[in-house]
Amino acid sequence: MVSVTPAKNRWISRLLVAIPFAIAALFNALWSGSFPIHLNYIARYGFLYSWPWNWLPNVGDLMNRLNVHNQSLESLGFYIALFWIPAFLYSVSIWLLLVVSRIAARALLKRFDPDKVDTLKRRAAIASSIVVMAGLGLLALKLGRAQIACNRRGAAYALRIRSIEHDANQELSMGTSSVDVSRFFAEHGIPLNVVESEAIGTIYTEGCGPVGCGTDRALIGVRVKLDSTGAVMEKPVVVGMYTDCL
Questions:
Q1: More confident residue, 108 or 169
Q2: Residue 53 class from Cβ within 10 Å (0-12 exposed, 13-18 middle, 19+ buried)?
Q3: What is residue 200's DSSP assignment?
Q4: How far apart are CA 94 and CA 106, in angstroms?
């Protein structure tokens, strides 16, 4: 029967303690742009990772209070506050839990046969490894699915902008009557407002926001200049933009 030696136990304990730092390194690499994953979804899981420690002083705010204007130092402070301090605290918590568990279990395990104890330890180590790997795999799967869905929304958003722009140039040429202008807006599902001799409409939708955008919310705006009779007098303008960006 294979037994779990003290050295192997120490190796397992060190691995468990190191896991939060591995997760922090992964988030740090993703956030810094080393991998083509959409920032919004990295942010979602990154903030979830640091959420239990939100009551701690934020290193990023400390950097601002120290009036640090170096972008590299500001980024370093942000990464430390969001990933590395929580990783350290998670590791300390795991270490304390392991210490307390050993102390509590020592007296209990003395009552069992040593071979059964070794088997139990080995199975617990295997189960812990499986849970950790499954958790990391699930995280990677969710990030991958979110990125695929985001890419599809971004492609659909860009296609819709091009389609509206193409139709506007074809159907809203100079001299187009107000009736045809209203029909164009209605056919494309764009609410129509006439303000100071301009036909204006805006669609609110979602795409795949680039880096610097807090969400994927976006809009498509159409503006057409009208003359005194309500006919088109200038080339229509179609604008697409994300709304929650720096």
A1: 169
A2: middle
A3: E
A4: 18
Q: What confidence tier does 170 reach under pLDDT thresholds 50, 70, 90?
A: very high
Q: Which of 242, 23, 56, 10 is nearest to 139 (CA)?
A: 23
How are the residues of the chain apportioned to helix, strand and coil, as percentages rounded to the nearest 5?
Answer: 65, 10, 25
Q: What is the pLDDT of residues 148-158, one digit of tens each?
A: 888 899 899 99
Alpha-carbon distance of 120 to 34, in angstroms, equals 41
Pick 186 or 209 by higher pLDDT: 186
pLDDT digits (tens, 9 = 90+) for 24-62: 887 777 776 545 455 566 666 666 666 676 666 554 455
Asked if residue 168 lies in contact with residue 200, where contact means CB atoms within 8 angstroms, the answer is no
Burial class (CB in 10 A: 0-12, 13-18, 19+), 221: middle
Cβ atoms of residues 15 and 100 within 8 Å: no
Q: Could you tell me which of 212, 202, 121, 206 has the C-alpha nearest to residue 155?
A: 206
* Rama region for 230: left / alpha / beta (φ>0; ψ in -120 to 50; rest): left
Secondary structure letter of residue 81 according to DSSP: I
> Whole-number mean pLDDT of the chain?
77
Taking the CA atoms of the chain, what radius of gyration do you get in angstroms?
Answer: 29
Those residues whose C-beta lies under 8 Å from the C-beta of residue 88, and which sit 6 or more positions away, are 20, 21
Torsion angle in degrees (nearest 10) through CA of 178, 179, 185, 187: -160
Residues of the chain with pLDDT > 90, as a percent, come to 29
